Amino acid sequence: MTAAATQDYDRLKDIKQFDDQKIGVKGLVDSGINTIPRFFHHPPETRPAPTPTSRPDLTISTIDLSAPRAAVIREIHHASSTLGFFQIINHNFPQSLLHSLIASIKSFNEQPAELKSPYYHRDPSRGGAAFSTNFDLYQSKAASWRDTLQMRLAPTPPNWDFVPDVCREAAAEWDTAVLTLGEELMGLLSEGLGLESGKLKDLTCLEGRVFVGHYYPYCPEPDLTVGITSHTDPGVLTVLVQNEVGGLQVKCGEDWVDVDPIPGALVRPFTAFALSEMHVEEHQFGSLSMCHVSPLESRGSQDVVKVLLDILHGALPSTLPEFNSDTTRVAAERPDLGSRVYLSPEFNVYIELQMWWLNSDGDERPPSSARMDVDIMSNDEYKSVEHRVLANPCPNSRVSVAVFFNPSNREDLYGPFPELLTPEKPAAYRQFPLSDFMRRFFTKELDGKSLTNYYSL
Ligand SMILES: O=C(O)CCC(=O)C(=O)O
Ligand SMILES: [Fe+2]
């Protein structure tokens, strides 16, 4: 007997009964319910606060893509290193394209249940579109008031025969368009870091694409649940289109900031991205090659890059003392330069990069000038700004489409560059695929062992 059942409530049974009907939350609404099933009830920690804190100082930037390139780069850089989320206007896409995209997801969801149920499953191996109420319905602690149509677009194209008719054309058109936009954004983001504009593209970051179309119907008890629970997106970059019904919020400290819909704007949650400079050119340290800049802190990502590159180039006359913390792992080191980069799992996914060095008298300098946060690029699990969608209290449904961009190439070997190896300085690390690094970092397999220890020869 399950724990839930002993409490006089068999949660799994209720979930299964609902899921087996394949009607989605839209089907529940259509059945005329006034209360939501108990398995949608969120615990108080994940429910929206009854009285949201007002932070007029926090607004989501709107970036005009038709402005001069240097200004766009500056603004994107600023938005990415502060709130980590921005909206885009004047993106050159006709409004009709965005409109058809949103309309196609709306139409799919508003068809009779029997036309949707053939697509209701959570099996990615089928290759077409998968429709469901929450892909994690059976794993999550509480369900969310949302139905989703999801498909992988690339590197393997979907089997279009298994994509609903009403969405096929719009999804295919959007894939072509969003690819152009993704390339442009990745170029601007790379340049904002002082890197060549093609760096992220070269890392295959445009080549893995997943499409999700969300439908958030009216919720009769919006205070008890959410539309999508607080999360960070997987991937390098997410491009999101939303309709006029609001509810999307971005976390900033302890506060939540509304992302008010702007007609025809695209929202792009900033997700951390690879410092491809290191990945491609420095490459001595597998782990460092996977550092990427966290957008959440206001410190400029440009500075992060500079300091990391300085370390790799040995420009800092640094001697780093031991950093004694049980929770800290050494992620990369250059003993020859006396430099180390520490990853602190305290933040779970946030990695704290800390550097100390000694001044000529041997006194430790305050770390503040060299302390910053970075993310580690992960296997479809890049960590970025937290966001959520409130359950929809309006009669009109909220519709959104997100495309997640991920590197398609995870099996390349990472490790010391052969050019750097000499008999006096043999390879300190063995080569390993990115996928392996990611898996170890985010699974228990590490068991307190540092990654560099794991990969060191
Ligand atoms: O519906 C939205 O606006 C957000 C969706 C989202 O965050 C996601 O799919 O990851
Ligand atoms: Fe998201």
UniProtKB/TrEMBL annotation:
SUPFAM superfamilies: Clavaminate synthase-like. Coiled coil: none annotated. Residues 201-407 form the Fe2OG dioxygenase domain. GO terms for molecular function: dioxygenase activity; metal ion binding; oxidoreductase activity, acting on paired donors, with incorporation or reduction of molecular oxygen. It holds the Pfam family 2OG-FeII_Oxy. The keyword Oxidoreductase applies. Transmembrane segments: none annotated. PANTHER family: OS06G0255100 PROTEIN, OXIDOREDUCTASE, 2OG-FE II OXYGENASE FAMILY PROTEIN. This is Fe2OG dioxygenase domain-containing protein. It comes from Escallonia herrerae. The lineage of its organism: Eukaryota, Viridiplantae, Streptophyta, Embryophyta, Tracheophyta.
